[in-house]
TrEMBL record:
Compositionally biased residues, Basic and acidic residues: 375-387
Taxonomic lineage of the native organism: Eukaryota, Fungi, Dikarya, Ascomycota, Pezizomycotina
Protein name: DUF292 domain protein
Highest taxon of source: Eukaryota
Spans annotated as Disordered: 104-128, 254-387
Protein family per UniProt: Belongs to the IST1 family.
């Protein structure tokens, strides 16, 4: 069965309202970031008084974003159960819910009318000739009959706690209550309020605006967020402290609050018990030994380790200087990486022992290992002499 025209209109309104709420949340969040950056500049310039005033705008913006998030969740609930809401609202249960709201509103406004009638009763009690008890008794019986009829209709509200559905009733109460106090003016939210008023009735709407519905109440979190009052001093201090910490600004107020935790022990702050040795790697301490007159003192483990490390470093990287360059080439060539065809690669440098041995066996040769022209001529002459 296709949805009715009223349900289609409700769904289309909710689908327009939810993206609008998300867009406003993004705008307010971006505005809050800009305001926080400006507050960090004020704190860096030591303009604390101006920062304390402007931080209230940041707090109000964050609260507005939180309110819009909660209203968005309730709108999504109404969108998911739009068919259920219309089926209940335009049926028998919706009629009973509207009658119940009328009786509740009348019951809450009745004490005020009774107070006015009691204050005016001495002036109009009895007639001019003393026969007022005739008409007065009739009026009194009529009032008691009307009160009995209204009390007889009240058990209709005690049949079940929910008007239509517990979750839907809570969403409707939130929309009615937040409409007057919403941080932004939204046309779609006004349309949604009108549509929910058609389903729940004007009496329910009037009760929900003041949070006076008997079984459904506005959540405490939303009540606190929509409450119009300045932020507390502790909240302002915490906001300024977090902004200064996020932007790396030194603010004296944050140091005062952090000093309440107490000071650290002196051994952790100054480190008086730490050893003064440069090596903090956990070497064993040198144990004293008994030395005789002709005995040679044994070096400690730390000194022996330092000596071995120094010798290893000298082998890896020989010292530089004029003495080190005698008989050696100042250019060092790293050997190629080992491969399968050459597992032990070596580099022959001119002037090395391998090169001298090769020259002694084969005579003079060029740097590339190819004999020179004189050497080839001599070898050719020797071959001719042989028979």
């Amino acid at each position: 069965m296709p949805p009715s025209a009223q349900t289609t209109r409700l769904v289309s309104t909710l689908r327009l309202l939810i993206p609008r709420l998300r867009l406003l949340q993004k705008k307010d969040t971006a505005s809050s970031v800009v305001q926080r950056r400006e507050l960090s500049q004020l704190l860096s310039e030591n303009r604390e008084a101006s920062a304390r005033i402007r931080v209230e705008n940041v707090i109000a913006t964050d609260i507005a974003v939180e309110v819009m998030e909660m209203v968005e969740l309730y709108c999504e609930l109404l969108l998911a159960r739009a068919n259920v809401l219309d089926q209940l609202a335009f049926g028998e249960k919706g009629t009973r819910a509207r009658v119940r709201a009328k009786e509740l509103l009348k019951k809450q406004t009745q004490p005020q009318t009774n107070e006015k009638s009691t204050t005016a009763a001495p002036e109009s009690s009895g007639s001019r000739f003393g026969f007022g008890w005739l008409g007065g008794s009739q009026k009194k019986d009529a009032n008691t009959a009307a009160g009995g009829a209204s009390e007889g209709s009240l058990p209709l509200a005690d049949d079940d706690d929910a008007y239509m559905d517990t979750a839907l009733d809570e969403a409707a109460v939130v929309i009615f209550y937040a409409w007057h106090r919403f941080p932004h003016e939204l046309r779609e939210l006004t349309m949604l309020r009108t549509m929910l008023g058609e389903r729940y009735g004007k009496e329910f709407m009037t009760l929900a605006q003041d949070n006076k519905v008997d079984t459904i109440k506005v959540p405490d979190r939303l009540l606190k967020s929509l409450r119009v009052r300045p932020p507390t001093q502790e909240l302002v201090e915490s906001y300024l402290r977090e902004i200064a910490k996020a932007y790396g600004v030194e603010w004296p107020g944050g140091e005062e609050m952090s000093g309440d935790l107490g000071d650290a022990p002196p051994e952790f702050v100054h480190g008086t018990d730490a050893p003064e040795d440069d090596d903090q790697g956990g070497d064993l301490p040198a144990t004293p030994t008994k030395q005789g007159a002709g005995s040679v003192p044994r070096p400690s483990l730390t000194e022996a380790r330092r000596a071995s490390e120094t010798s290893e470093l000298n082998k890896a990287t020989p010292p530089r200087g004029p003495a080190a360059l005698q008989g050696r080439s100042p250019v060092s060539v790293a050997p190629p990486a080992p491969r399968t065809d050459n597992p032990n690669p070596r580099v022959r440098v001119p002037g090395s022992e391998a090169e001298v041995a090769a020259k002694g066996s084969t005579g003079k040769s060029s740097a590339g290992g190819i004999p020179e022209l004189d050497e080839l001529t001599r070898r050719f002459a020797d071959l001719k002499r042989k028979p």
